[in-house]
């Protein structure tokens, strides 16, 4: 009997010690993760600040979570609130992580960056909850090459937007260009994206039309007229094909698939300047390819243009 009691006490003692060790180890990991998160937040551009409520770690799954993240921007940067950020993989690097996979759950658009952005999006999304975002990226410090393996936005409205791309990050600081910003040193090599529309385009277009005192069909007709004019001005077969895809999308929103092969790396800021001065030349340099797929029949799909 005494041996059984002793054995039971040993088992209980070992269990308590193991639990204390696991709890202490988890708390240590949480402090380490919190330090890494704080360091990354400190590296954000001057126009962006962020804070959070807590950090938790799951040692068994080797994952971490950041709870109630608030991102506050200035100027054209939006404010956003994220219920939970799940960090699946993280490898430290400079200036970007060598490998990162994160998921943003329940992203709330608190304040728009561009004027009227928040009002238009809230009308299009039927509320301030945007949805979930997944980001997986790699960065090679030697070549300064950045791969966006996955950037997916799954809206609560049903729309799904996904991007993959390759870039180079040149050593350009925030003050090296009159239009400086986080993308001042970013060069585009290639990009591929897809937008599966489930009603967002129609909702936003109708909201913009109401603000201008017209119907959605009238505004869509104006857009189609602009596309026809652009196609006639450019006279480029590849651009004509992309314009035709856009034209069909405006008529019946469905799926748009975009491919860009820049050839030589193309500065994002320089490209933006070219679009302001000479859009046709900028588009020819970018050489976008758009494909359109009509939507399948869905009884729950949003209504068409009024």
Shape: globular
Query: What is the oligomeric state here?
Result: single chain
Largest sheet: 11 strands, antiparallel
* Mean pLDDT over all positions: 76
Measured as a percent range, the helix fraction is 25-40%
Task: Please count the helical segments.
Answer: 7
Highlighted features:
alpha+beta, 37% helix, 36% strand, globular, single chain, 7 helices, 306 residues
Summarize the structure in words.
By secondary structure, the protein is an alpha+beta fold. The protein has 7 helices and 11 strands. Strands 1, 2, 3, 4, 5, 6, 7, 8, 9, 10 and 11 form an 11-stranded antiparallel sheet that branches. Helix 2 crosses helix 3 (200-211) and helix 6 runs antiparallel to helix 7 (279-286). The model is unreliable at 9-24 and 173-179 (pLDDT under 50).
Structure, briefly:
This protein has 306 residues and is of the alpha+beta class. Helix content is 37%, strand content 36%.
Please give the structural blueprint.
Blueprint: H1 2-42, E1 48-51, E2 54-58, E3 63-73, E4 79-91, E5 99-111, H2 117-125, E6 129-140, E7 145-155, E8 160-169, E9 186-196, H3 200-211, H4 216-234, H5 237-251, E10 255-267, H6 268-277, H7 279-286, E11 288-293
Helix pairs in contact: 2-3, 3-4, 4-5, 6-7
